[in-house]
Design brief:
The chain is α/β, with parallel strands linked by helices. The chain is built from 6 helices and 8 strands, in the order βαββαβαβαβαβαβ. α4 links the parallel β5 (about 85) and β6 (about 105).
Length: about 160
């Protein structure tokens, strides 16, 4: 049996390498690639405008990777004032690693619906929320935070495109 891995680089190549180490026949054939998002250059100024009452959401590891690279390029750091949230454990770990801050994330399932159940997100009227994400995707988090009275802003940190 041969295995065709369609994950984007470098994750696809890493998986192929592990599979081959285990004696499997595997090839990497990425179907999508990632590139910087259209709004990435505005990230530092958006983050610096946030206060201790505000919220930052990282919806993927890729959003964290591209956001952190942009902040480093601009010689900026992650602000300590807002509360940080991640869609799941892996994204939270990535964000904690680059920022050093406590990151709130759902412990059960790594999906939008469970993230939105966190107690810290129930009474958010009047707060600003900056959502770091890729192009496209679900609108549930933004719509729900808006319905709860938050002023929601999106920052496209990366783009997915067909390879």
């Amino acid at each position: 049996m041969s295995i065709l891995v369609t994950r984007p680089s470098p994750a696809g190549e890493e998986l192929v390498s592990r599979l081959r180490t285990l004696g499997q026949v595997a090839w990497s054939f990425p179907l999508i690639e990632f590139s910087p998002g259209r709004e990435l250059a505005t990230l530092a100024s958006r983050l610096s405008a946030l206060t201790e009452n505000d919220l930052v959401f990282a919806l993927s590891q890729h959003a964290v990777t591209f956001a952190d690279a942009e902040l480093q390029q601009q010689e900026k750091s992650w602000p300590s004032l807002p509360q940080y949230f991640a869609i799941g454990r892996t994204t939270a770990l990535a964000l904690h690693t680059v920022s050093g801050f406590n990151i709130h994330y759902p412990l059960d399932r790594e999906i939008s619906e469970v993230l939105l159940q966190l107690p810290e997100l129930q009474n958010i009227a009047g707060k600003r929320a900056l959502i770091l994400r890729g192009n496209g995707g679900r609108e549930l988090i933004g719509e729900t935070l808006t319905a709860r009275g938050a002023d929601v802003d999106f920052c496209e940190c990366y783009q997915r495109s067909a390879k």
